[in-house]
Amino acid sequence: MADETKPPVPRIQLHLDEALAQGVYSNLLLINHTETEFVLDFAFLAPGPPVAKVRSRVIASPRHAKRLLVALQKNLQRYEERFGVIELSGDDELTVH
């Protein structure tokens, strides 16, 4: 079999305006999906009445959502290797509807 080499992946430069570069805080993520897309709503839930404000919505293809999952897993592993295991409490239990 011939030696098949993949072309190098080009490095992508990200340009952010100052407001976007500040980011937003989110402590709640709601995920919905159809056959063709995943919708991720990043929200903030303040203490008090259970009303969350969506801060950002990201819509991604299923393939991109899976790449995001793999990237998060790899980065969490690296984080825990460097800073220690992230412990989850009973309050952190995942709710799937």
Secondary structure topology:
Elements: H1 18-21, E1 28-33, E2 38-45, E3 52-60, H2 62-83
SS elements, strand count? 3
Portion in beta strands = 15-25%
- Give the topology string: H per helix, E per strand: HEEEH
Strand order of the largest sheet: 1-2-3
Oligomer: single chain
Please tally the helical runs, counting DSSP H or I stretches of 4 or more residues.
2
Q: What does the overall shape look like?
A: extended
Describe this structure in words.
The structure is a single chain. The chain is of the alpha+beta class and about 100 residues long. The protein has a domain of about 60 residues. About 25% of the residues lie in helices and about 25% in strands. The protein contains two helices and three strands. The chain has a three-stranded antiparallel sheet. The radius of gyration is 18 Å and the shape is extended. The mean pLDDT is about 90.
Name its key features.
three-stranded antiparallel β-sheet; 2 helices; 3 strands; extended
Summarize it.
The chain is of the alpha+beta class. The protein has helices at 18-21, 62-83, and strands at 28-33, 38-45, 52-60. It has a domain at 23-85.
